[in-house]
């Protein structure tokens, strides 16, 4: 497989400010209908309202997979979610009220909302509260309140230390460190030092502690706790005479995120980590800067389609476009000509009048006049509304400032974003097996960057105290890219929470009006080169306003170019994990097919498929260990088997072009409701208490992937295989091969020496195990097995002259 597997599917353009009637089509090569209003329909002359026109995440129940594929091909903005029901399949889609009604009109069963803008407002309020709390103490020394400090004995007098301290700084970036002595009159740090874990309950900070009591060699008298904020306190350590406890096998700290973070915060976080841990980490500046969180400034004039025009600044709003003003004036004289005047950054359109003094300028005439005026054209361009002929008369309008409508605070840069990756490893010279963890290809998936950040924090802060973490960092080369889509991520946080794509606008003037702005951008997980829209594969769109717009060409976007650059720059990368949300899936390549005949990209070989399955047990057990979440077997497997086609996704890119073994998480598994005895979907942006739990459990999963990679790097064991006859008739025999680990078997039936060019054991079918081989005469079978790490059975040399391959004769009783 190769790439992140998330089949995220296209969406109907969400045109937020207009009551637009969309006409969805079910044609084999669908084109989204022109979202223009009906003749004479009123359109607003200002930007969309903050309620985002009722956009919500809704349930759709369809009878079968063919109907899912139809929605996908129509460009409906499907989530990465699919659940079987007794009467069909439930999928989720981001829809405006009009889009939902259009689907209902075409017979689709569109049901209630999973989340809407009230949930978005609540998330933003919670996030704001958490940030304000952190900012309130950011420049102040925190106060530490000791709760408990005790030592005790257990298991044949083994001593343990337990400390609990509360900081007045409640944010997750506050790190407490405990240092203790080794008895009376000893040095304050002679006993040891350890980072404390931040303990939260239901998303609320409680205090810091050790996750488990620390084993110590001598009873300390005092412990000093210091904070990264500057606070410090020293307290006596008392002997505790309570219940004995089983000693921990390790000291481990976790839980380093306490609110949803925008891409600027996330990137600052990994940069700070690299500064704190320079011996085992570094920042890689990726070569291609993004387009930036920026837009041209715009203004719209008119209330009726034929009479409406809009203007767009040549400069981005943040670079002067927001300073431009446009006035549409009516002269006081009859038979006045249409004229354009420019003073500085103010453009005045004086409309023409007829002999009676009434306005006679049409929208088309105004647009042409503005674009023909050299001074005005240097500042902006004008367009009729969505390609309309513009035959309606224009109304006068007061001075109006153009605006880019971007709402992020000034602390968020509008400039092209410098994407960064955090590289973690004791030896970062390419000699160790590389693992690439990347998150937030899709902007609205707010939990995913937290997962990557949490993983990075755990690796770095546990390195000195946890032997298992030290082995990972010492023996792997780990690359973490917590936000692949920083521009879109910022837009999702501050402007339109359901934004999926980046912010690069490829739309022509006919769909470039202000009310279309939430539909612009490229779906980064449809912009890669393998199994792409441009190769005829399904699950992506050529419409610039579709949620799965593949872009103008493969790898057109700097964000996707950066992903590919990283895997080529560091060819030691052998494993990858693309983290998306939501639904609770664990998937791998191939990720795309052509709808006609379901022509699938080549499946991975049988040995690699078994490796994916075997590794999934370890990885998903780690996810489950956090709070018991189980990823269903039906939602584990190659992308198209459990979801739908995702043309041009990143996992296929990395697997087919670089041989990188890659998985895809869809965090946010359904949560069981004991009252209703049903599983409830969580959505892209659950309340933070749920989002926090998702980040924690899937950080567990990311670390388990590192453990899988480390086992791979240490694998020197040669596989063992055997031939098993599974059936006989009077005239034939059927057999297959079994292996003691995931491996590929190469075999011959003609008595020749097997090589890597010989036939290879395949899968019998999707999830059906190994193929059965039938012979109609007594046959000498020669074969050998090769595991995923390249170890060859029996030390056989396929490219040499060795005859140390396996061989066995399969007998057929009667030969006619």
TrEMBL record:
Catalytic EC class: hydrolase
What positions does the domain Peptidase M14 occupy? 378-709
Q: Which PROSITE patterns match?
A: PEPTIDASE_M14 (PS52035)
Reaction it catalyzes: Releases a C-terminal residue, which may be hydrophobic or positively charged
A GO CC annotation given for this chain: extracellular space
InterPro entries found in the cross-reference section: GH29D-like_dom (IPR059177), Peptidase_M14 (IPR000834)
Q: Which cofactor does it need?
A: Zn(2+)
Entry's EC annotation: 3.4.17.18
Signal peptide coordinates: 1-33
GO terms, biological process: proteolysis
Where is the segment annotated Disordered?
797-816
Compositional bias segments (type: Basic and acidic residues): 805-816
Which GO terms label this protein's molecular function in UniProt?
metallocarboxypeptidase activity; zinc ion binding
Cited SUPFAM superfamilies = Zn-dependent exopeptidases (SSF53187)
Q: Where is the active site?
A: 666 (proton donor/acceptor)
> Could you tell me the keywords of this UniProt record?
Carboxypeptidase, Hydrolase, Metal-binding, Metalloprotease, Protease, Signal, Zinc
Q: What does this protein do?
A: Carboxypeptidase that possesses the specificities of both mammalian Cpase A and B. Thus shows broad substrate specificity, being able to cleave Cbz-Gly-Leu, Cbz-Gly-Val, Cbz-Gly-Phe, Cbz-Gly-Lys and Bz-Gly-Arg in vitro.
What does the sequence similarity comment in the record state about its family? Belongs to the peptidase M14 family.
- Name the record gives this protein: Zinc carboxypeptidase
């Amino acid at each position: 497989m190769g790439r992140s597997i998330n089949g995220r599917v296209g969406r109907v353009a969400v045109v937020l400010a207009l009551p637009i009637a969309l006409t969805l089509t079910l044609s084999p090569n669908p084109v989204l209908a022109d979202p223009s209003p009906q003749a004479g329909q009123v359109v607003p002359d200002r930007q969309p309202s903050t309620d985002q026109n009722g956009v919500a995440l809704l349930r759709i129940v369809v009878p079968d997979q063919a109907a899912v594929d139809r929605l996908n091909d129509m460009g409906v903005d499907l989530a990465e979610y699919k659940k079987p029901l007794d009467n069909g399949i439930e999928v989720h889609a981001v829809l405006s009220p009009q889009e939902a009604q259009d689907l209902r009109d075409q017979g689709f069963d569109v049901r209630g909302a999973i989340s809407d803008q009230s949930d978005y407002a609540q998330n933003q309020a919670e996030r704001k509260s958490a940030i304000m709390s952190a900012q309130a103490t950011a420049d102040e020394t925190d106060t530490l309140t000791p709760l408990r400090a005790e030592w005790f004995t257990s298991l044949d007098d083994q001593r343990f230390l337990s400390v609990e301290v509360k900081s007045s700084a409640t944010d997750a970036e506050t790190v407490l460190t405990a240092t203790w002595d080794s008895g009376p009159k000893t040095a304050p740090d002679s006993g040891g030092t350890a980072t404390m874990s931040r303990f939260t309950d239901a998303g609320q900070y409680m205090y810091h502690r050790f996750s488990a009591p620390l084993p110590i060699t001598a009873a300390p008298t005092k412990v000093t706790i210091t904070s990264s904020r500057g606070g410090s306190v020293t307290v006596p350590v008392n002997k505790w005479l309570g219940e004995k406890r089983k000693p921990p096998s390790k000291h481990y700290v976790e839980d380093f995120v306490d609110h949803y973070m925008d891409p600027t915060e996330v990137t600052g976080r990994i940069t700070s980590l690299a500064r704190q841990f320079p011996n085992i980490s570094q920042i890689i500046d990726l070569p291609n800067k993004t387009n930036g969180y920026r837009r041209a400034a715009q203004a719209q004039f008119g209330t009726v389609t034929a009479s409406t025009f809009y203007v767009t600044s040549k400069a981005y709003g943040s670079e002067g476009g927001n300073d431009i003003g446009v006035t549409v004036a009516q002269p006081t004289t009859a038979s006045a000509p249409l004229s354009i005047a420019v003073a500085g950054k103010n453009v005045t359109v004086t409309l023409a009048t007829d002999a009676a003094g009434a306005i006679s300028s049409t929208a088309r005439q105004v647009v042409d006049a503005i674009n023909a005026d050299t001074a005005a054209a240097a500042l902006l361009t004008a367009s009729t509304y969505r390609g309309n002929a513009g035959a309606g008369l224009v109304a006068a309008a007061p001075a109006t400032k153009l605006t880019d409508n971007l709402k992020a605070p000034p602390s968020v840069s509008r400039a092209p974003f410098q994407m960064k990756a955090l590289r973690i490893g004791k030896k970062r010279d390419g000699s160790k097996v590389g693992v690439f963890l990347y998150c937030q290809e899709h902007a609205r998936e707010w939990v995913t960057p937290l997962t990557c950040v949490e993983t990075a924090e755990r690796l770095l802060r546990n390195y000195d105290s946890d032997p298992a973490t030290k082995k990972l960092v010492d023996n792997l080369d780990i690359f973490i890219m917590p936000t692949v889509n920083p521009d879109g991520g910022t837009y999702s946080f501050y402007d339109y929470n359901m934004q999926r794509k980046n912010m690069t606008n490829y739309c022509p003037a006919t769909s470039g009006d202000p009310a279309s702005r939430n539909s612009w951008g490229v779906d980064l997980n449809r912009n890669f080169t393998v199994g792409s829209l441009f190769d005829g594969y399904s699950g992506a769109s050529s419409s610039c306003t579709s949620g799965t717009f593949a872009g103008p060409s493969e790898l057109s976007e700097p964000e996707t170019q950066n992903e590919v650059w990283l895997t080529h720059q560091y060819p030691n990368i052998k494993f990858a994990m693309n983290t998306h949300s939501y639904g609770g899936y664990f998937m791998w390549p191939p990720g795309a097919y052509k709808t006609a005949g379901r022509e699938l990209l080549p499946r991975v070989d049988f040995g690699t498929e078994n490796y994916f399955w075997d590794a999934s047990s370890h990885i998903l057990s780690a996810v489950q260990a956090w709070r018991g979440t189980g990823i269903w077997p039906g939602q584990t497997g190659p992308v198209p088997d459990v979801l739908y086609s995702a043309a041009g996704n990143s996992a296929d890119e990395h697997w087919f072009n670089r041989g990188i073994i890659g998985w895809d998480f869809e965090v946010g598994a359904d949560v069981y409701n004991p009252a209703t005895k049903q599983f409830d979907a969580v959505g892209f942006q659950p309340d933070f208490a749920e989002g926090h739990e998702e980040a924690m459990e899937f950080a567990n999963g990311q670390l388990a992937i590192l453990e899988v990679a480390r086992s791979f790097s240490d694998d020197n064991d040669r596989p063992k295989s055997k031939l098993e006859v599974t059936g006989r008739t009077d005239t034939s025999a059927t057999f297959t091969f079994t292996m003691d680990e995931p491996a590929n078997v190469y075999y011959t039936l003609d008595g020749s020496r097997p090589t890597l060019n010989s036939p290879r054991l395949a899968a019998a079918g999707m999830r059906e195990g190994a193929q059965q081989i039938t012979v109609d005469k007594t046959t000498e079978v020669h074969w050998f097995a090769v595991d995923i790490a390249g170890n060859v059975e029996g030390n056989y040399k396929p490219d040499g002259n060795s005859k140390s391959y396996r061989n066995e004769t399969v007998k057929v009783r009667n030969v006619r």
